Amino acid sequence: MSEKKKRPVPVPTVTTGPFWDGIKAGKLLLQYDPEVDAWQFYPRPGSLKTGKRNLEWREAAGTGAVYSFTETYVPTAGFEDRTPYLLAMIDLDEGVRILGNLFDVTAADVFIGMPVKIAFEKISEDAEYFCFEPA
């Protein structure tokens, strides 16, 4: 009999470490380029706008709106107990898009433009992950 696979846990890198440290602390930290007043996601070593390595980590509001979503019935390994589940692309108020699970709502009740806020779930003894719920 095969052993059930566990949900993957993020493995921070030098570039992504501050993001995951923020999630563990219950905060959504995004990179910000103060020279051009621009936020960016996903974490990168340099600014998307200027190419400079002048990025700061700033706490985002964690609010936004659903840009797109899907209801998933065939799970990836480690997510078998969660099907069906909702994945959504979220337009954050800071102007970047981020993909995350939607909790506390059914697919029938989700709509494009629906206001959402960040939430957090413990996925292992040492790891937290972000998700979104209706605002």
What do these coordinates show?
The chain is mainly beta. It folds into two domains: 13-60, no CATH class; 61-135, Beta Barrel (OB fold (Dihydrolipoamide Acetyltransferase, E2P)). It contains one helix and eight strands; from the N terminus they run αββββββββ. The chain has one helix at residues 17-24; strands at residues 29-33, 38-40, 56-59, 63-72, 85-92, 97-102, 115-122, 128-134. The protein has a five-stranded antiparallel sheet, covered by helices on one side. The longest helix has 8 residues, at 17-24. The termini are far apart. The relative contact order is 0.19. The model has no long low-confidence stretch (mean pLDDT 95).
| Computed structural class | mainly beta
Query: Within the largest sheet, what's the order of strands?
Result: 6-5-4-7-8
Strand content: 35-45%
Helix content estimate: under 10%
Q: In the residues, how many domains can be counted?
A: 2
Helical stretch count? 1
What is the typical, i.e. mean, pLDDT?
95
The CATH class of the largest domain: Mainly Beta
CATH-defined architecture of the largest domain: Beta Barrel
Rg from alpha-carbon coordinates: 16 Å
> Terminal Cα separation, in Å?
43 Å
CATH topology of the largest domain: OB fold (Dihydrolipoamide Acetyltransferase, E2P)
What is the approximate shape?
globular
Strand and helix order: HEEEEEEEE
Q: Low-confidence stretches at least 5 residues in length (pLDDT < 50)?
A: none
Please count the beta strands (DSSP E, at least 2 residues each).
8
Please give the largest β-sheet.
5 strands, antiparallel
